């Protein structure tokens, strides 16, 4: 799939200003961004539910959108998993899946072919044991599998998923992310998944496309967009970060954690520090713990930099010292300077 300059606006609302994006065959890409950035509109443009006012869209060599061209959704060979699943409560699991074949390439084949494909997809998605049950009898995770099975049954050229985990509780969400990725890969599908959840996007995708104010700002692997964000909005949205806007003097920028070399030719820069690159221990910058968030597998300390320090402790109100973790300096070579482990220092003009 390749979109070039796709645009769709809604009066004063931004919508999509410039969707330029390529999804590779067999890839699971996530389209990540905050609410209102145009993600869902972008998905609807690809599906054909919205007509672009500018730009072009090609699906595996076939132009489906462009100047005076709009191929309807049913002729694009695209499968869709909606946010609310849009299942038929009066039909069984198997009949919901079979309904996905009504407009697909199997509609003119014998019934045995359709039944074989339904059985194959039910097995693929782990639903073979509940084929005869009503979808209302299934859990949220089960219903999501049915929606996914119905979408992949016609073997779509592109599978689109709109916030598919939003209605699931937190514990089930993590399990279903792994299951959905495994199903998509086993099916050999190409998929584009929309989400505002950064953890979801990073954990499930082959590549992530970050969208901001109607435009794609960065595309890369999960590690690339997290460790090497290309813009300040990407650094702020993808993962937690401490961001400082600081002057550059004599090629150096003075941070609360010491001076560091800045990219050449800049008078100011942003310094972005990831929480995991900071350590609470003796010998660092004085600070005071003002809040503690405990998650079981880890914890987040909110530390206000101060002038004095006492023994380190995670308890709110106690004074601590904060320092950057062990690192190796990397000479800055452009608008972004890397340093410290996992790229905790980033510089922008």
Give a structural overview.
The chain has about 350 residues and is of the alpha+beta class. It has two domains: about 1-235, 3-Layer(aba) Sandwich (Rossmann fold), CATH 3.40.50.300; about 240-345, Beta Barrel (OB fold (Dihydrolipoamide Acetyltransferase, E2P)), CATH 2.40.50.140. Helix content is about 25%, strand content about 35%. The protein has eight helices and 18 strands. It has helices spanning about 40-45, 95-100, 110-125, 140-150, 170-185, 200-205, 220-225, 230-235; strands at about 1-10, 15-20, 30, 55-60, 60-65, 70, 80, 160, 190-195, 205-210, 215-220, 240-250, 250-255, 260, 270-275, 280-295, 300-305, 320-325. The strands form four sheets. It has a six-stranded mixed sheet, with helices on both faces. Helix 2 (about 95-100) packs parallel to helix 4 and helix 4 (about 140-150) runs parallel beside helix 5 (about 170-185). It is globular, with a radius of gyration of 24 Å.
